[in-house]
Each structure stands twice: as structure tokens, then as C-alpha cells.
Amino acid sequence: MGGSTVVIGWGFAAALLLLAATASVVAGLGGLGVGRATATAALRALAQLAAVSAIIVAVVGSLWLSAAFVLVMLGVAAVTSARRMTPERAGLLAVLPIVAGAAPVVAIVLATGTVPPTGIALVPVCGIVIGGAMTATSLAGRRALDELVARRGEFEAALSLGLLDRDAAMLLVRPSAAQALVPALDQTRTVGLVTLPGAFVGVLIGSGDAVQAGAAQLLVLVGLLAAESVAVLVTVELVARGRISRPGAPG
């Protein structure tokens, strides 16, 4: 593989199998309840990456096909977040915080000329930003709904003091939902010292230019912070207003 950091061969397959088995067995023995889900996730990742790799090669040559592929990514992200937050159909409103977080970031990098309007550039950038917004939406929504269910009495007490439904809910959900930003904040604070994320390593290997690699990673990290901050804010607002709810939660 030349300058690549990963050698594709039998060792690669063996490493994947051992790592997936380790994750699944440890989760099972630890009673975490996700042993099978861990193995399934690894298999899905293998199948999906194989399929998506072929699709991306076919679509990046066309801006319209690339845009269609981004819409597919957005749909999958919305469904994934919805399932993480609530069994109710209203969870599909997760698409709103994901779009609200990702769209401004993509618009800014295009408007400033930082990223060219080509499929090969847009697909990975949109994928990274949508993925970050999806994770933030899922975490913020789950935490907010958990708080409303567990602290329903406090919510009702706030109502008895004259607060509106939305304001009473905000007292409970805003602090916990903000924790959804902790992973992005920690990754940004420790980049280069603890972690060397994929965008940095990929550009460094591809071009050998450390400055360009650092610039690409900085753009990704700050873009993710922006997208996830907006996504969390919109998610909290939707939960507080009862637009996204869960059985047992007020709203």
C-alpha cells in the first residue's frame, strides 16, 4: 500500500474479526446488553462501507448525483436519531436540528471558497458535518427526554409556580442536553495532543503537506462545533415545546 498506514490483506481481515469479537464478548460478559448489537454494527459497517465506496466512486463525478447522495445521508441520519430518542413518529423531526446544524456550515465553506463545489469535496464534508449533527441530536434528545420523564414532578411544580410549559421544560432539559457537546469539545481541545483525527491523517498521507493537513482538520473540528451547537439548541427547543416527546414525558 506504499505510504498507507493500513495494509490491506489477510492481517487486515484477521484484525477486524478479532477486534469485533473482543468488543462483542466484552460487552456480553460485562452484562452491558449490547453484545449482539456490537457484532451486528461491525458487520453492517463492513457491508455499508463496501457498498458506499462503490456508490461514491460513481456519483462524485456529478454534482447532482452527489447532492442526491447527501440527501440520502440526511434521511438515514434523521431516522437514526429518531430511533435513539423516541419510538414515536414525531422523532422524525430530528431532521430539523440536523439540517439546521449542517446547512450553515456547508453554506459557509462553499461561500468562502474554502471547499470547491464539486462532488469529491462536498460528499465527505457533508458526511462529516451531518454525522456530527446527528450524534449531537441523538445525545441531546435522549438526555432531554430522560430528564423530563425522570423529573416530571419538578416540571409540574414549575408549572404550579406560573411558568409556561416550554419554560418549565427548559429548566430541566437545557443543562443535561448541553452535555451532548462534550465529545466535540474534548476532541477539539485535545487534537494534536491526544488524537490525530482522520481528516488530518488523510490529508497528510495524501499530500505530505502538514500545513494543509492541519488546516483541513481545523476546518472540520470548528465546523463540527458549529453544527453540533446549533443541532443541540434546536433539539432542546423541540423537546421543550413538546414537538419531540416520549411516552411518560410531559408535552
How does this model look, in words?
It is a single chain. This protein has helices at 10-29, 35-59, 63-85, 95-111, 119-150, 152-160, 165-177, 182-190, 198-207, 210-240. With 251 residues, it is mainly α. It folds into 2 domains: 1-59, no CATH class; 60-240, no CATH class. Helix 5 runs parallel beside helix 10 (210-240).
What is the general shape?
globular
Low-pLDDT segments: none
**Beta-strand residue percentage:** under 5%
- Counted by DSSP, the helix tally is 10
Order of helices and strands: HHHHHHHHHH
Features:
251 residues; mainly alpha; 0% strand; globular
Quick gist of this model?
The protein is an all-alpha fold and 251 residues long. The protein contains ten helices and no strands.
